From TrEMBL:
Native source species: Quadrisphaera setariae
Keyword Cytoplasm: no
Composition skew (Polar residues), residue ranges: 334-346
Molecular function via GO: endopeptidase activity; metallopeptidase activity
Segments for region (Disordered): 326-346
Signal sequence, renumbered to the chain: none
Transmembrane segment boundaries: 35-57, 77-97, 124-146, 158-178, 199-217, 223-240, 249-269, 281-301
Record-annotated CAAX prenyl protease 2/Lysostaphin resistance protein A-like domain positions: 163-258
Keyword annotations: Hydrolase, Membrane, Metalloprotease, Protease, Transmembrane, Transmembrane helix
Pfam family, one: Rce1-like
One of the GO biological process terms: proteolysis
Name of the featured protein: CPBP family intramembrane metalloprotease
Length: 346
C-alpha cells in the first residue's frame, strides 16, 4: 500500500482512530448536528405514533368497540404491529444520521461501515446461554414457591398460540434492531460526538442512552427501571468494546425471545407485557448475567481480533479501520478483499 499524502496523514492524526460512540465526531461535525438529528427523530416518532393511533381507530371501527387488552397487546396481529413499528426505528435512525450529520447510515452499523453478520451470530451464543439459564432458574424458584412463573390467563386456541410463536421468532429480532439502532446507535453516537475525549464521550453516551431506553418503556417501579437501565448500559458497553451494534442486537433479540416464548406457551403474554414491577432478586440475577455477557463477549472479541476503532467518516479513504492495537489497517479498496466479517486479516 502506498503511503498517504502529507495532508491525509494530518487528517489521520487529527481524526483517528476513534471508538464506535465517536464515529460522528469527524470533519463534518458541528455542535448543532446532534440537535438536527434529534429533530428528525422526534418528527419520525410523531409519525409512528399517529400510525399506531390510526391502527387502533381502525380496530375500534371493525370490532364496534374498543379492543380488549389481549387484542391490543397479546394477539398475533397486535404483537406483529408493535414489533414492526419498533423495527421502523432502524430507517428513522438512518435518516437522523444522514440528514442530521451528513454521514452515510452504514456507519451506524459498525466501525467498518457494515454489519458483521458472522460476528452477530457468534456473539449471540453466550447471551442465549446466560439468559436461558437465568429464566430457567427463576422459573424453578417461582414454581417451588407455588407461583406461576410465566403467568396465565390468556384465552387462545392452539392455532393462535402457534401464530404468536412464529411472530415472536421472526419479528422480535427486528424489534431489537430498531431499539438498538435508535438508542445505542444514533443517540449514543450523537451524544458521543460532543466530547473531545473518547472515554468521556462513551461514558456519557451510555448513561444518557440507557436512561432514555429505560424511560421509553413507560410506567414501571424503580427496580424494573433499574433493570432496564442496566441492560442499556451493558448494550452500550458491548457497542463500545466491539465496535458496533451487532452484539447488542443479538443480546437484545435473544433476551426478548427467551423471555417471551415461555409466556406465550403458558398463556401469560398479556400479563407479561403489562408488567410494571420487578423484584430485587431479578435485578441481582440480571446484574450477574449482564456482567458475564459483557466480560465474555469482550474476551471473545479480543481473541477474534475484532476491529473496534476507526477514523470518522470522510477520512476513511486515508485511514480506514484500525485494529484494537491502534495499527492502521488496509485502505478501503484493499480491506474489502482482505477483511472478512470485520475481523483483522490473519
Amino acid at each position: 500500500m502506498r503511503p498517504a499524502p502529507r495532508g491525509q496523514v494530518d487528517e489521520q492524526v487529527r481524526w483517528g482512530p476513534r471508538p464506535y460512540p465517536q464515529l460522528l465526531r469527524g470533519p463534518r461535525h458541528r455542535w448543532w448536528r446532534p440537535l438536527l438529528g434529534a429533530a428528525v427523530v422526534l418528527a419520525g416518532l410523531v409519525v409512528l405514533l399517529l400510525a399506531v393511533g390510526a391502527a387502533y381507530a381502525v380496530a375500534d371501527a371493525l370490532l364496534g368497540r374498543p379492543p380488549t387488552d389481549e387484542e391490543a397487546l397479546a394477539s398475533p396481529w397486535a404483537f406483529l404491529g408493535n414489533n414492526l413499528v419498533l423495527a421502523a426505528l432502524v430507517p428513522l435512525s438512518w435518516a437522523a444520521v444522514r440528514v442530521g450529520h451528513g454521514i452515510a447510515p452504514r456507519w451506524q452499523a459498525s466501525v467498518v461501515g457494515r454489519t458483521r453478520w458472522r460476528w452477530m451470530v457468534q456473539s449471540g451464543l453466550l447471551p442465549a446461554a446466560v439468559v436461558g439459564g437465568s429464566v430457567l432458574g427463576l422459573g424453578l424458584l417461582a414454581t417451588a414457591a407455588g407461583q406461576e412463573p410465566f403467568g396465565s390467563g390468556d384465552q387462545r386456541s392452539p392455532t393462535t398460540t402457534a401464530a404468536l410463536v412464529v411472530v415472536v421468532l421472526l419479528t422480535t429480532p427486528l424489534q431489537a434492531a430498531g431499539e438498538e439502532h435508535l438508542f445505542r446507535g444514533w443517540m449514543s453516537q450523537a451524544v458521543g460526538s460532543w466530547f473531545r475525549r473518547p472515554v468521556a464521550g462513551a461514558v456519557v453516551a451510555a448513561l444518557v442512552s440507557a436512561a432514555a431506553f429505560a424511560f421509553a418503556h413507560g410506567d414501571q417501579d424503580p427496580w424494573l427501571y433499574a433493570d432496564r437501565f442496566l441492560f442499556g448500559l451493558t448494550a452500550s458497553y458491548l457497542a463500545w468494546r466491539t465496535g458496533g451494534l451487532e452484539t447488542g442486537i443479538a443480546f437484545h433479540a435473544v433476551n426478548n425471545v427467551v423471555v417471551f416464548m415461555p409466556t406465550v406457551l403458558a398463556g401469560g403474554l398479556g400479563e407479561s407485557l403489562q408488567t410494571t414491577s420487578a423484584s430485587p432478586l431479578l435485578v441481582l440475577v440480571d446484574v450477574v448475567g449482564f456482567a458475564l455477557i459483557a466480560l465474555g463477549t469482550t474476551r471473545l472479541a479480543r481473541r477474534r481480533g475484532l476491529v473496534r476503532l476507526s477514523a470518522p467518516p470522510c477520512v476513511e479513504s486515508s485511514l480506514g479501520a484500525v485494529t484494537r492495537n491502534g495499527l492502521q489497517a488496509e485502505s478501503r479498496d484493499s480491506a474489502s478483499a482482505s477483511i472478512t466479517e470485520g475481523e483483522n486479516p490473519r
